[in-house]
Amino acid sequence: MDRQAIQQVLDRYYAVLNSHDRNGIAGVVAADVVFDDDMVPDTVFHGADEFRGVFDGMWYAFPDLRFEVLRGPFFDDGTPQCAVYGRLTGTLANAVPDWGFTRVGASVDQEFMAVYEVAGDRMLYIRACLNPAILARQVGPA
């Protein structure tokens, strides 16, 4: 898979996330996607439906949630993989106590790194790394 094809998948992926397009998720992640995100520690999500559920929760909590790629993508030549360094921002409008998001009105501004593996025209594997302690300080219990 060439860099341009991976870049197109990545661009579509972030467009769906930033437009909060729950129906568009099926077009950017594989049916059997594996999603491992430090924002929801100790949990690995399997499949497009679980992935959609995570983002339904995130978009409910942060109606203005945005992702910005600051550097990258960095490609692993000869493989369908890449990594990015980015930033997510948003304002907690609705508490999600199960995730520790309780400080309604507080803002999240968090840097992250993510590794992606692409299969065809969809994401097959997503590993997002961020510091949950920073997130807890920003939107967790006061």
Describe the structure.
With 142 residues, this protein is of the alpha+beta class. It has one domain (3-139): Nuclear Transport Factor 2, Chain: A (Roll), CATH 3.10.450. It contains three helices and six strands, in the order αββαββββα. The chain has helices spanning 3-19, 48-61, 132-139; strands spanning 29-37, 44-46, 66-75, 81-91, 107-119, 122-129. The chain has a six-stranded mixed β-sheet with strand order 2-1-6-5-4-3. The model has no long low-confidence stretch (mean pLDDT 95).
Q: What is the share of helical residues? A: 25-40%
Count, helices: 3
How many E-type strands? 6
Mean pLDDT: 95
Q: Give the low-pLDDT segments.
A: none
Percentage of residues in DSSP E strands: 35-45%
Per the principal axes of the C-alpha atoms, what is the gross shape? Answer: globular
Structural class: alpha+beta
Rg, Cα atoms, Å: 15 Å
**What is the strand arrangement across the widest sheet?**
2-1-6-5-4-3
* Tally of structural domains: 1
CATH class: Alpha Beta
Give me the strand/helix succession: HEEHEEEEH
CATH architecture designation? Roll
Describe the sheet with the most strands.
Answer: 6 strands, mixed
Output the CATH topology. Nuclear Transport Factor 2, Chain: A
Query: How far do the termini sit from each other?
Result: 47 Å
